[in-house]
Amino acid sequence: MFDSALFHDVIQPWLIKIALAFAIAVAGYYISRWTVPWLERVLRKTRIDVMLIGFIVSIARTIFLLFIAVAALSQLGLDTTSLVALIGAAGIAVGLALKESLGNFAAGVMILIFRPFKIGDFVDGANVMGTIKEIGIFQTRMTDPTNVEIIVPNATIYNSPIKNFSTHPTRRIEIAVGIDYANDPRQAKEIIASLCAADNRILPEPAPLVLVNDFGASSIDLLVRVWVNASDILAVQTGLREQIKQRFDEENIAIPFPQMVLRRPE
Which alpha helices (DSSP H) does the chain contain, by range? Predict the structure, then answer.
């Protein structure tokens, strides 16, 4: 015979708990399907890197589903305190085991958020110089001027001074020139100034500067400072040096060089 007391006292409460837990799980699943894409759309409107957005969305989805699972199990009357404590302890253990990796991960997140450099930039960081090819969550890939690939942990490069040569469209270059003490430094300065004015790769503003920098052991040391577009640095450096040497030869201005004099003992 049907035992109504058993049904009302035992079976019915459990059916209600199961139904509520199922409803929480289903509702949570559909809510996550709406909130997670919404979060992704919001993040895509910011300047956050696409790779970091995908990681944030994945973590948010996992945390939300984990919260729904705990809520559903709690509705069934299960003690979820131990489960939460177990998850927390496991997280701490994993964190200690992956200390270095988590440090690289945190540095990668900071790089993607604050953008000290981007793909295609030529940088000098962690005693490594090269062009950025890939910014990953744990490491950054670079290619040096000899086309050798260099993989640098994110924590290493982020915690060191970073020189980004691609940030500004223009750069200042300096060329040191030495002339003989017998020559007139004013004449040498005028020649160099005329060469700078004739080179359309050298920017008129800020104006080129030629000055007497020092009195060396065997030469009067001149310093040439000019501003150029970043893409013209090497061409201007080499071209201006060649032109200075050619004009100095034409004007009989000597560029001293170290000499050794050998004398035969008497």
Answer: 4-6, 12-44, 50-75, 81-97, 99-114, 154-158, 185-198, 233-250
Q: Which residue has the higher pLDDT, 73 or 199?
A: 199
Instruction: Write the DSSP assignment of 115-174 as a string of letters.
Output: -SS-TT-EEEETTEEEEEEEE-SSEEEEE-TTS-EEEEEHHHHHTS-EEETTSSSEEEEE
CA quadruple 167, 160, 156, 147: dihedral, nearest 10: 50
Distance, CA of 25 to CA of 258 (rounded, Å): 84
- Among the residue ranges 36-40, 125-129, 173-177, 219-223, the one predicted with the least confidence is 36-40
The answer, yes or no, to whether residue 194 has pLDDT greater than 90, is: yes
Q: What is the pLDDT of residue 50?
A: 66
Q: Find tokens 């709406």 and name the residue.
A: 34
Q: Which of 11, 31, 34 is nearest to 23 (CA)?
A: 31
Distance CA 219, CA 256 (A): 6
